Amino acid sequence: MLHFHLGASGSSSVLLIFTIFVALVYLRGWLHLRSTSLNVIEAWRAGSFLLGLFSIWVALASPIATWDEALLTGHMIQHLLLMTFGPPLILLSEPVMLLLHGLPRRFVRSIISPLFRWRPVTQLGRALAQPALCWLAAVLALVVWHIPAAFRLGMQSAAWHVVEYASFLGTGLLFWWPVVQPWPSVSRRPDWSIILYLFLATLPCDVLSAFLVFSERVAYPVYLSTSGQSSLSVLADQQCAGALMWTCVTIVYLVAGAILSTHLLSPQISAAPETDSQKLEVLL
User: Fold this and answer.
1) Reported pTM
2) Residue 2 domain flag
C-alpha cells in the first residue's frame, strides 16, 4: 500500500494559505455589506462560512487527513466532513454573494460579470441546480467510491485520491444547493419535495452503513496491512465507520428536514418588492 495524503507538508501549507485567503475575501465582503445595510446578511452567516471552511481544512490538511491510511473510520470522518457538514455550512453563508463583494470591484465587473452572463455558463448553472441531478451525483459519488475496487484505487493512487476528495466535496455542494438555495438561486421558497429529497438520500447511506456494521467479513482488505497501527481490529474499525456514518447522516438530515418543515408550516411573510439579493445583482 502506498502512503500519501493531502496533509503532507507542502500540500498542507498551500491549502492552509488558500483557506485563509478565501476566508479573508469572504470577510471583506461581509464587512462591506454590513457597513451598508444590516439587513443584507446576518452575522451568523460569517461564522457558518468559517466553520464550513474549517471542516474542509480538517478533512484535507489536518492530522485527521492521515487517518484514512490506517482506519476506515478516519476515511469516514473525511467523507462526512466533505459531504455532510462542510457544504451546508458554506452554502448557508451566502458564499457567492459575499465572495463577489470581497473581490475587487473592477475584477468582478471586467471578468466575473461577463462570465456569469455568458449563456453556456447560465445554462450549465441551471442544469447543475436541478434537484434530480444533484441527488444522483451525490449518491453516485457515495456508491462508486465505496465499491472495493474503486476504494482500493483511491488508496493506492495519489491522483485518484485527489479525484475522490474533489468528488466528495463537489457533489456535497451540489446535493445541498437545492436544500439551502443560496443566492443566486432562482427560487427561494422551500418545497415539500425537498423533504422527500432528503429522505431518499438517507436510503443509500443506510444500506452502506448497515452493510459495514453487520457484515462479518472485511469489505476493504487494503486495511489489513495497516491493522497494527490501531488498537481496533479491521472488522471493528469497519463497524465503527458504518455506525458513525449511519448516526451522523441521520441526525444531519433530520435536522435539515425539521428546519425546512418549520419554514413550510410557518405563515409566509410577503416579500418586499425588491429583495436585498436582487439589489446585489447590480454588482454583476
Assistant:
1) 0.88
2) no
